[in-house]
Each structure stands twice: as structure tokens, then as C-alpha cells.
């Protein structure tokens, strides 16, 4: 059973930074595509960043490119999202995700990020 537990959300002023963490367990994630999604009130969940567990390039949504950095620590089975130059429009619940080569995507419970202007 895949388990993803996010932490690190909170309230920050515009221009500030936060680092989200996602502790992944329950599987060997070598063939998984890890990621971060977010969902703002009244909007659909959207992909923010995607990083292969076993190497390869990282994808970023245009809205966060140059400001957010996704990374992983395979030894600790943890995925990170470093967010800088935060804007009020980045306010959302952020979800960690894990997608296997075959099968459905897993999500964590989410962590709230609120950026005040």
C-alpha cells in the first residue's frame, strides 16, 4: 500500500519561500513518477512538477517554472518541493503524487499553502 505524507505547508507572505516534503512508503519506487499537484478553491487539481524516481528530467508547469524546484532523496524515500518567490495565486492545497508505470496514481492527504499579499 503506497503511503504519501506531505508536510511543510503554512502561511507565508508574497515573495517568501516554503519547502514541502513528502515521505513515501509502502513500495519500491524505482519505476514510479513522483510529482506535486495543487488545487486552489473552486479550481481543478493541476500538475505543478513531476520528477522520475530513477532519473530523467523534471517537468514544471509554466506557472512555477524558475520559482519551484522539485527534488528527491532516495535514501530517505522523500520528495521535496522548494517554492520561492511565492505569489498569492500559489495559494492552494498541495498534494504529493506517485504514478507507477501501470496502474492508477496515488495522492497524499495534502498540505495547505497560503500566500498573503
Please tell me about this protein's structure.
By secondary structure, the chain is mostly beta strands. Helix content is 0%, strand content 52%. The chain is globular and about 40 Å long. It starts with a strand and ends with a strand.
Q: Notable features of this structure?
A:
mainly beta
Brief summary of the model shown:
With 117 residues, the protein is mainly beta.
Query: What count of helical segments does DSSP give?
Result: 0
Radius of gyration: 13 Å
- Termini gap: 40 Å
Secondary-structure class: mainly beta
Number of strands: 11
Note poorly predicted spans. Answer: none
Q: Strand count, sense and closure of the main sheet? A: 7 strands, mixed
Instruction: Give the rounded overall mean pLDDT.
Output: 96
Q: Give the overall silhouette.
A: globular
**Which series of helices and strands comes N to C?**
EEEEEEEEEEE
Strand content: over 45%
Helix content: under 10%
What's the arrangement of secondary structure elements?
Elements: E1 3-7, E2 10-13, E3 18-25, E4 33-39, E5 46-52, E6 59-60, E7 68-73, E8 78-83, E9 92-99, E10 106-107, E11 111-116
Parallel strand pairs: 2-11
Antiparallel strand pairs: 1-3, 3-8, 4-5, 4-9, 5-6, 7-8, 9-10, 9-11
